[in-house]
Amino acid sequence: MAFFGDYHTHTIYSHGKGTVEENVIAAVKRGLKEIAITDHGFHHMTYNVRKMDWPFIRKDVERMREKYPMIKILLGLESNFVSLKGTVDITAADMKYLDILVCGYHKFVKPERLTDQFGFFLPNLLGMAEKRMLVKNTDAYIKALEKYDIDVISHICHAAPVDPVEVAKAAAYFGTLIEVNNKNIKAKTGLSSCTDKQWEKVMETDVEFIVDSDAHRPERVGHFEKAETLIERVGLPLERVANWNRTPVFRSHKAKEELLRAAKRSAADGESK
Ligand SMILES: [Zn+2]
Ligand SMILES: [Zn+2]
Questions:
Q1: The CATH number fitting domain 5-272, selected from 3.40.190.10, 3.20.20.140, 3.60.130.10, 3.40.50.10330
Q2: Is 47 in contact with 15 (CB distance < 8 Å)?
Q3: What is the 8 CA–ligand 2 centroid distance (Å)?
Q4: Which end of the chain has fewer CB atoms < 10 Å from its terminal CB, N or C?
Q5: Closest by alpha carbon to 105, among 161, 49, 51, 146?
Q6: What is the pTM (predicted TM-score) of this model?
Q7: How far is the CA of 82 from the centre of ligand 2 (A)?
Q8: Domain ranges of the chain
Q9: Mean of the pLDDT values across residues 66-85?
Q10: pLDDT, tens digit, 9 for 90 and up, residues 4-41
Q11: Which residues contact 85 (CB under 8 A, 6 or more apart)?
């Protein structure tokens, strides 16, 4: 198998062990053509990127682009859900630094409001009211996909119950990729947070996938072995994996523009009738 790039890696700017340069060198050694640096979003209580570091990370990436022209380096962020309303810990001002936006549910995140601590994070953490939370979490995912130009949903089903099929339908509509996250797959069982049955159902939607390492150490960059085994087992066609032998197209922004144009056209058609 030949994966074109790794679009979810961490560095010392958040929870990773290596520098941006070390991740880039590791990616070049693995033969990747692209790498994204996607540290944890601002609201994570322990592993967050600090706002004050943001311009420096951008500069760091720019420097590495000049030093390693053989690989394309993208700056991203793995943003966190902060509310049941689908709010994510990123602003329009932050977005200007970004080439790619990854978004995932994480525990131990500062909520938007106190009510989200008690109505969102705590019940998910404690596994309370699982059926009710599944509906609420799924709704939060779909609202986030609608509100933000999210390119990749990372490790779906991890740490909070969701309906991955409904999320995948919305992701397909808004031009977002669903990640097969190598780190999220248990070494012993080969199972991810989604069950194989759920992956099979997700495959019945029109969504596209992306395979990432979620490396927290440079030596894990570009390692997709567990994801490859899962892909084979559930029969995910490689032509639906956006970074398999091709440059993935991150089109969430474009997809929203197209939807807006289509809505305007149908409104204009309605008026002229
Ligand atoms: Zn994550
Ligand atoms: Zn991550």
A1: 3.20.20.140
A2: yes
A3: 6
A4: C
A5: 161
A6: 0.96
A7: 16
A8: 5-272
A9: 97
A10: 999 999 999 998 999 999 999 999 999 999 999 999 99
A11: 112, 140, 143
